[in-house]
Design a protein that fits this description.
150 residues, mainly alpha, 6 helices
Length: 150
């Protein structure tokens, strides 16, 4: 529905002034519309969507619904095992490894994978904390260099 405006214009000068003010208003509204559109579209950029939805809790919720991690692991684990560990093995060994690792892959879900990842990460990152604790606990109770026993 178009909003109609009624103007009280009495002469040509008032008409030109009104036309100029309407043009200025049109330009300002156009700039405001462009700025608002840019702000609105920034909400839906790839980075913004990743920040909003790609959180660990969102992945765990999605994994609970669709079992993506177990399906992926049931496909990837047999391929990985047969192409690396059992590379030179026969067809029967590869078939058995494929079946076994496929079953193991189906039993893994997002929580198990995150626990495995955290434990492996702690193996590599945990050594710094232990060294720092040992250096803080070490006290030298030997003879001070300024003592008279020297």
């Amino acid at each position: 529905m178009k909003k109609s405006r009624k103007y009280n214009i009495n002469n040509l000068e008032e008409l030109h002034a009104m036309v100029c003010s309407l043009k200025d208003e049109h330009v300002l509204q156009g700039e405001a519309l462009v700025n608002d559109t840019k702000i609105y579209l920034k909400q839906f950029t790839l980075g913004g969507l990743i920040k909003k939805y790609a959180t660990p809790s969102a992945f765990l919720k999605m994994d609970e619904k669709f079992n993506l991690s177990s399906t992926l692991m049931s496909w990837v684990l047999p391929l990985f095992m047969n192409s690396t560990v059992f590379k030179g093995s026969g067809i029967l060994t590869k078939a058995l490894v494929g079946l076994a690792s496929g079953k193991v892959g189906k039993s893994l879900d997002g929580e198990h994978l995150s626990a495995i990842f955290n434990s492996v990460k702690s193996w590599f990152g945990g050594s710094k904390k232990k060294k720092e604790e040992k250096s803080e606990e070490y006290f030298d109770y030997g003879i001070p260099p300024d003592s008279e026993t020297y």
